[in-house]
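Structural prep section.
Before we set up the soaks we want a predicted structure of the protein with phosphoric acid mono(formamide)ester in place, mainly to decide which crystallisation condition to try first. Input record follows.
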Amino acid sequence: MPFELKHLFGLKDVSKEDIITILDTAVSFREVLERPIRIVPTLKGVAVLNLFFEESTRTRMSFELAEKRLSSEVVTFAKSSSSVSKGESLRDTVRNIEAMKIDVIVVRHSSPGVPRFLAAHTGCRIINAGDGSHEHPTQALLDILTMRDHFGSLKDLRVLIVGDILHSRVARSDIYGLKTMGAHVDVCGPSTLMPIDMEHFDVNVHYNLEDVLPDYDVIYMLRIQKERQSKGMIPSTREYTSMFGLTMERLKLMKPDAVVMHPGPINRGVELDYEVADSDRSLILNQVTNGEAVRMAVLFLLSGGSER
Ligand code: CP
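Run finished without errors. Recording the tokens verbatim:
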């Protein structure tokens, strides 16, 4: 099947075939990352702009590395050192980007929909690196690859996403992508941190973590996203941790072969105990490693490459 996506806004409407193509292409790029010289000329002459209006460690660094490993021309925009802080509008920023002959834009922004706005107003290929509480598709793709690596298949894999579902773009993208791949996904967290339209996601909603921990293969912990919460959504961090934090005691309730995942950044001692994050049940650093290969695959495929 040819890869036909022009932009990656989210995983809601991405087919199983396209997800498999991205994962398989990422696996072939992992081989490049094992070489002594980790660079290929695949995207020579392609100009990529990393347009980050929000903070990022993992996503921005792994996109930058992926772009450099593919030999593309890389420009990185950070809001704090740009003319946005002097009042320049997004529209004008975009018009200036157009004038600089950019081919691909990787964008992170606090407003849902900015990736589609850029696609409508530029001729560039757009990759969403996280837009508000909407979607974070490359995070979900690297999560799905990490689960496929570990379990061999996603079919009927049971995944529980725990925490601040309401504000989580990662939860949305993971639910869409994992369900497309045949996994069973449910969520758990405080009722105040559940979207009111949860029925549209076709998942079961749980409110007691200890009751359901034994039923899943993957426990996917989320950060409490204080930057997107209004006051009073949880009584206190300590109370949240007492009900939804994954401690070593709770880890013992999980299936013997179940694993723990987290998109990062981790709030150690809040959603995850220190020992859980570093335990042999944690795939958190595997997720980070897969991030680079998945982003190489997405850049390559959206720039017109076919499966390698
Ligand atoms: N998981 C993730 O998006 O991390 P960053 O915010 O550090 O990019």
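Observations: The longest helix spans residues 284-302.
Flagged for discussion at group meeting.
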